[in-house]
Amino acid sequence: AGFEMEALAERQPARDIRSFFPGAATASTTARPPPPPGPAVGAGPSHQPRRQPHAASSGPVRSDGQPLAAAVRAGRLECLGIGTEDAAEIPADDADGADLPPPVPVDEAAAASWVYPTNMPVRPYQHSITKTALLHNTLVCLPTGMGKTLIAAAVMYNFSRWFPAGRCVFLAPTKPLVHQQVGAVRKSVGLPRELCAELTGQMAAEDRRRVWRFARFLFLTAQTFVNDLKTGVCPGEDVVCLVVDEAHKATSNHSYVQAARLLGRRSAGFRVLALSATPGSNAERMQEVVSNLRISRIEARDEQSVDVVGCLKSRQMDKVVVQPTAEYLAGRAAALEAYRALLRKLRESGVGVGDDPAKVRRYSLLTKQKELAAAPPAGMEQHHVYRAQAHLTVAMMVAQGVELASSHGCSSAIAHFRRDMEEWRLLRE
User: Fold this and answer.
1) What is the pLDDT of residue 30?
2) Most CB atoms closer than 10 Å: which of 102, 309, 321, 361?
3) For residue 385, how many other CB atoms are within 10 A of its CB?
4) Straight-line distance from the first to the last Cα atom of the chain, in angstroms, rounded to the nearest whole number
């Protein structure tokens, strides 16, 4: 891949999503000393403004004159989105200060500049977002097909230049997506095959440990990454860049959230780049993603954005409505009738969740099952509790089949039922 080279400037961090929008109130209501200039988050290097890439220098410095190495050492506090003055306010489970390893050494000559791939058309919005993502933990919100992967590839490539001993990790929610992104990232910036690795939970622990030792760019699911961090297979102290695909899933106790939390306890600092086409349906959900992934910048574009217009090919969309076949309607009706019978049994056993099988979702059944296990209804005998839980389990199986029939067709629903029936047969035996 061809590259162009630039020097980087600095910006200040922000945490509350209201601060991302003009005129919005900020989260802080008490005056505090501003955090020191430099990288807002992680171990990302900061650079003196307008430095020429090949200018003679004693090494990159921050705008306040602090050497880059000191900025990297402070990077772990800034990774939490706060300044060093606020260190006392770090939650106890995230403040293992004395136990943290030293930061990954930075190549100060390489860190004086950053490079951007020129082996494909340079789109202004991608170039601008990449520059922001190098200096800040950034949530990138772009519709599908607008080049989020290229931005991730450029960020990972630059962090591999700046931290030659570091590791760059790309997380995706499923194994097919992981496999897809390996090729897309390699193609974008011309990464050597021998430096990239795709990890799965099916690999032996020792094999994964060996891969972690030699690969520089690692692609895996979030759950595999969490498991490797917990077991020590992954050298978390070497991770300098964490890319999170489908980042809108980073809510509650999702494996993305666990990954960011565990890595924060094992690393002196790392950059987070979160990618999503649908970051959240409301401000509360977006705030949860921003907080869980330690985001300090949001970069959002759509096809009508000023720096996007003219970069994309025009598209014509035709809506095609496919009418369901008689066979499909008959199959779905049969599944709904079986589901209705299970809901009736649940109601008769004192665990009502609704009567309309078209409206009772699998999640509602799972929630009711958890409630029943935690606090059974007063007066319900234990064997009745077990029977209700068994009915809920079967109802969830049928509910998933109904959902598959609606979204993927009867063949997927039939395959699901056959698989579950085989599992039940094996359990009985």
Assistant:
1) 29
2) 361
3) 17
4) 58
